[in-house]
Amino acid sequence: MRIVNGCILLLAAISITFAAVSGAYHLDMQQLLALILRQENVPVQEQIVFWQIRVPRILAALLLGAALAGAGTTYQGILRNPLVSPDILGVSAGAGLGACTAILWGLSIVYIQLYAFCGGLMVVAGVWLITRRVTRHDPILTLVLVGIALGTLCGAGISLIKTLADPYTQLPSITFWLLGGLSTVTLRDLCYAAPIILIGSLPLFFLRWRMNLLTLSDDEARSLGLNVTRLRFGLIVCATLITASSVAIAGIIGWVGLVVPHIARLLTGHNHQQLLPMAMCTGAILLLLTDTLARSIGTTEIPLGILTAFVGAPFFLLLLLRGGRQ
């Protein structure tokens, strides 16, 4: 396990260095060291590129990658289904509907992010309230089905807004936001999102050993003295806060919360005490490398959601094929 942790830390350092020097404006190692050490002979253009563009994107990729992977691991554990992601309860669809509404009304980027955050929380709150009213069925299955239904409803709302939006100004903005990306993320955005993500992540980190109990049936967990409903609700709230904050500043970035937990399980096993930290580290590295690739492989930056889908969808199919053989 120490070897695996050491390799992850080494890979993280290499990934950060690679992201710092790569892009349309290439920097070599000497220039990078001069920028980090704040030497006086560094050109102003290089300082702007590094400190105002690349550093915020690197920090955002690390933060959001860890957040989405941690939320995905939590959802898969508490819902006892390895094929679910943070989108399963409709948080991304709700955030997308909120953001699209703000864009349609011509609001500023701050309000777009606020509407996205509130939209994601409202949908998950609706999912939980409806699930509480349905008492005759399996609560986990009901939770997932209600989430899918409300997510579909939000998707219909997004399609309606696209129809009503101005095709020359608003529609491109809506489409670009829904594809996800870190090109517009600033340090101010991170200052807003980071505290919420931290508040949501700390309970997950300290309660990760109890997630192992939620992988048992509800009756078995209750026999061990666990308040299943309260714990599941608390973990869902924390994971939803993390996901909504991430989607609010970066748009919808799919597949990270689905794929990364499986990669982490190959490295640590199914014990959430090791699985959750490993998934968060792996998610941070994966999203950082993907974002670096998105802004480096062509003259036009590729939306991050497209690249994560190209990586995640084949991996998802492999999981299905592997499960079918077993």
From TrEMBL:
GO terms for molecular function: transmembrane transporter activity. The chain crosses the membrane at residues 58-76, 88-106, 112-131, 140-161, 192-211, 231-260, 272-290, 302-321. This is Iron ABC transporter permease. Belongs to the binding-protein-dependent transport system permease family. FecCD subfamily. It is a multi-pass membrane protein. Its main location: membrane. GO terms for biological process: siderophore-iron import into cell. Keywords: Cell inner membrane, Cell membrane, Membrane, Transmembrane, Transmembrane helix, Transport. It comes from the Bacteria. One of its GO terms (cellular component) is plasma membrane. Pfam families: FecCD (PF01032). It is found in: Cell inner membrane.
